[in-house]
Structure formats: C-alpha cells, structure tokens
Design brief:
The protein is mainly alpha-helical and about 150 residues long. About 65% of the residues lie in helices and about 0% in strands. Helix 2 (about 20-25) packs across helix 3 (about 30-35).
Length: about 150
Amino acid sequence: MSTIGQRIKDLRTTRGLSLQELADLVGKSKGNISGYENDKYEPSAQTVISIAKYFKVSTDWILNGLEFQNQNDTPEAEAESVSFSKLESDMIQMFRLFDERDKEDVFEFIKSKYDRAFKKGGSTSLYSTYTEEKENDTKSDTNGKDSGIA
C-alpha cells in the first residue's frame, strides 16, 4: 500500500505540477511538500484538506488510500455497495484530475468500446475479458503455482 506522501506525489505529478506550484496552491513551502512526498513528516489536517479540495479527491483517499464509507450505512446498503479494484480506483483518481474536455474524451472512448462490445452483437464483457487476461498472465508468471491472489 502506498503512503500519504506517495499519494500526494502521484496527484501532483499526474497533474504536471512542480513542487513549488503545489506549495503555492496550498500555502506551504516547497520543502514542506518535498518532506510530505518523501515521508519525512505528515501534512497537517488543514493541508490534507487543501490538497484534497484542489485535486478533487477525498481526504480519506489521501490519508489511507481508501474512499470514505458512511458508517451509518444500513446492512442492506452495505451489501449493495460496490468495491473497487486497485485498477478501478486508480482510474477514478486519474479521471478526477482531468478537465471537463478530457473527461468528455475519456467518456466517449469508453462509450465507443462499450457500444462495440454490447450493442453490435458482442456478448463478452470488456471487464471480464480483461480480468481473464490478467488471470492468465498471473498464472503464467507463477509457472502454475498458486500466487495467492484472489
């Protein structure tokens, strides 16, 4: 699992910001941001809030790599809640960093893939095809041994 510093660095570099640019945006010094990213020390709560607001991610994701889950959810709602794989979570985090035009481009690309697979007679889910390929890669990487990955 990544650290707070690694998640901050990933957000900053994905957006193409320098240390100084992020420091200016959240009211900290370049050295402070570098210290967070190198896990020398952790940002204050206010700094985490500022970073989360700027990058449009949850503070929970910055702090622990997980999205917020409401503790007041009913058991029924909990059973219906969706868990995201690491790939899905990473894709969502990257998507949130795009401007509206890029979001539209990504949506159109995914929609065209969906239409090709489901509306033109395709019967195979793109996601299930992807996971089958990943499972085959994992099996070949472990030479037939159980990798322990579920």
